[in-house]
Amino acid sequence: MSADTKIAELLTELHQLIKQTQEERSRSEHNLLNIQKTHERMQTENKTSPYYRTKLRGLYTTAKADAEAECSILRRALDKIAEIKSLQEERRIAAKSARVQSDNDPPRKTMRRGVLMTLLQQSAMTLPLWIGKPGESPPPLCGAIPASSDYVAKQGDKVAARVKVVDGDEQWILAEVVSYSHSTNKYEVDDIDEEGKERHTLSRRRIIPLPQWKANPETDPEALFSKDQLVLALYPQTTCFYRALIHTPPHRVSHAPQASNPTSSVVQCQTRTRTLLVLCQKSSSSFGSEKNTSE
Fold first, then answer.
1. Which of 72, 78, 241, 288 lies 20 to 30 angstroms, CA to CA, from 131?
2. Residue partners of 134: CB distance under 8 A and separation at least 6
């Protein structure tokens, strides 16, 4: 089965799950209304009789079951979305590999910088939100939580890569993993900026994986950067990282486009004295070598 066919099937299944969610929500509305009316009667009568206690216990039991059923459907829908995104990424990587040009092929047009910046912003905005079960801790690569020591980034993953530049200095850039050699413990990565397209072979200590999930400030605040924490940030309209300080951590989940930085491009920064978690998207108002930035 082709990737396009599989994606079409998954989209159909996702549509059905969305319909089921709405149906489940509509069924539960009547019970929630009964709970509200029962509380209003209790306030009017200014008493809590055994009758009301028994009635509310039954209503809340039903409401809890309804909420769990809706939650189950939503988690299945999230799994479908993750599977669709995975297939789309596999298709993108396959298309990129197939573009290996022969001598007779015309040169491929380089992606304009503005288009690249838009795609990176869209990628950051659509990073999935980690939604764990009650009591479940966020995993590595969720928000500010770094990857485990033995983690190996996959082909196509975005990473921060420390490379040498023309004048001999070193710089952190945004790159895409091409391959990893277990025998040499080295990555091959491509500079994400096609205008200066270059492939680098780097050791693991020069690679920092970017997160796979956004952290929810309301349920997983421990997975967020703290105020005044030293970070690396993508300089506006570039793919290079610069030092910055967190000014204001997020306090709620935003489902609308943000004017400043998404929390998705988060990596681990290595310093001489300690290891810090760092942010990879910087507010356009935060120019300079070391400025304040918000997640």
1. 241
2. none
- Tell me which residue range forms the domain holding 28: 3-98
Same domain, 91 and 168: no
Number of structural domains the chain divides into: 2
State whether the Cα torsion 279-129-126-149 is positive or negative.
Answer: positive
**142 in a structural domain:** no
| Tokens encoding 71 | 């939650």
**CA nearest 192: which of 207, 177, 214?**
177
- Which residues have CB under 8 Å from 168's CB, separation 6+? none
Residue 201 within a domain: yes
The one-character DSSP state at 73 is H
List average pLDDT for each run of 10 residues in the chain, which is 295 residues long: 90 96 93 94 89 94 95 94 91 78 56 78 84 90 92 93 86 92 95 80 93 91 89 81 84 53 51 39 37 49
The two beta strands, 207-209 and 266-270, are unpaired
Q: Closest Cα to residue 129, out of 277, 293, 264? A: 264
Question: Is residue 243 situated within a structural domain?
Answer: no
Answer with the one of 177, 208, 239 that is the final residue of a domain. 208
Q: What is the pTM of this model?
A: 0.74
